[in-house]
Amino acid sequence: MGFSVWRIILIVAVIVCVAFAVTCHLIALVTDYWLQSSTPQRNNFLNIGLWRACFDHYEHVHEKDGPVYDGCHDLYSDEYKNIRDWLVPCKIAVYFVSYNSCVENMFLFRTGQINN
Q1: Domain range for residue 4?
Q2: Residue 86 belongs to some domain of the structure
Q3: Which of 12, 22, 44, 108 could form a disulfide with 58, with the two C-beta atoms 3.0–4.6 Å apart?
Q4: Is 23's pLDDT higher than 80?
Q5: CA distance 59 to 21
């Protein structure tokens, strides 16, 4: 039951690619810099990630006499409850829930907890 050289190279390549993909996925989940302000002049938007958004004295256009958003806070905190739909559009939330459901079902199917 010896492995050929090509099969060993293929197995190593797959392991390296999976490790790289998992590393990139973890970095994407942890970082707060998915979008960052790229204009040289000062503006109110600093950065946004999957879990947090940062503003510098930002006043939302559709809120008359609304609160001024300052600092970094979680997207689902009470600080951003008035502009949450603007920060996280419904389409992105649906994609996120769908993706997580697919990954969870794949895991449960592989572990034998879901039968055909």
Answers
A1: 1-30
A2: yes
A3: 44
A4: yes
A5: 38
- Close Cβ partners of 34 (under 8 Å, ≥ 6 residues apart): 28, 47, 48, 49, 50
Average pLDDT over residues 105-109: 71
* Region at 48 (left for phi over 0; alpha for psi -120 to 50; beta for the rest): beta
Residues 36 and 26 grouped into a single domain: no
Judge whether 39 lies within some domain: yes
70, 58 in Cβ contact below 8 A?
A: yes
Take residue 51 and report the two structure tokens written for it.
């879990």
Which residues in 76-100 are b (16+ Cβ under 10 Å) and which e?
Answer: eeebbeebbeeebeeeeeeeeeeee
If one compares 42 and 72, the residue with the highest pLDDT of the two is 72
Any domain includes 21: yes
104-112 long-range contacts, Cβ below 8 Å, gap at least 24?
Answer: none
Largest CA distance in the chain: 74
